[in-house]
Structures are given as structure tokens and as C-alpha cells.
Amino acid sequence: MTEQPSAGWLDGREHVLPVRIYYEDTDFTGVVYHANYVRYFERGRSDFLRLAGIRHAELQDQDAAFAIVRMALEFKRVARIDDALAVRTTYDSARGPRLFIGQQIFRGEDLICQAQVEAACIDLAGRPRKPPAGMLEQLRPYFA
Questions:
Q1: How many Å apart are CA 52 and CA 99, to the nearest integer?
Q2: How many domains does the chain have?
Q3: Known catalytic membership, residue 27
Q4: CB 105 within 8 A of CB 46
Q5: What CATH number should be reported for the domain holding residue 85?
Q6: Which domain holds residue 123?
Q7: Which pLDDT score is estimated for 6?
């Protein structure tokens, strides 16, 4: 297990990122606003890559970035102010310029939200491209 407190930790092929719910994350009822789950998932994907040795700034230096091309969300329960959540992320596979990612948010044992994500590697002009040399090798140990 590799740990870095600000980036969560890797547990086998899964990344775990703790998230605390603050007042700013909620609507007037104290429930997490639905769009914020997308933000938590983004943090989970980015911190997974960081702990796997892949830095977004270095990708940009290689004329590469990622764009989300598909995201299917399923909301199971609500999260509320002061909840302690865990964003769990797996990078499942890659095909061409695409990465396939599974994500879940839990409060304890309760599944709050889950997502199936498809990201495409693009150049800085927005055109699809293969991921930079070595990046897939860094991710391969985590693929299903």
C-alpha cells in the first residue's frame, strides 16, 4: 500500500480517497448537490494517477491530456453535511486512446453513488491520440 495523505492511498488495484462533506458541498437541505459527486470522482481519478506516478503537468509537457467522453452515474443514497466518504477508483482497461474507469463513493459500508467513466487521451488541440509512451505500462498493474 502506497500512502500520501493528501492523495489518498492505493489498496491493491483500487485507489481510496477520503472526502469530508462541508457546508459548501450541500444544497439548502444539507444534502450533497448532485453535481459535486462528479467533482469527487475527478479528484479520485487524478489522485489515482498521481500515486501511480503519472502527473498531469508531465502529460501536458508531452502534448497529452484527458477528456471525459462518457460518464454514467447511479445515485443510491444521499450524502449529508459532515459525512466522511470514501471515493474508490479502479482503472479497469485501455483500448486505443480510451481508458475505462469504475468509481464508487461509500459512507462506511453504504454505497452512495457509482460511476462508469470513459476517458480519452487527447492532444492539447483536442484531437484523440495514443497515451504517451510508458503511461499504459505504469497503469497495467492496476488493470482488471
A1: 15
A2: 1
A3: yes
A4: no
A5: 3.10.129.10
A6: 3-142
A7: 81
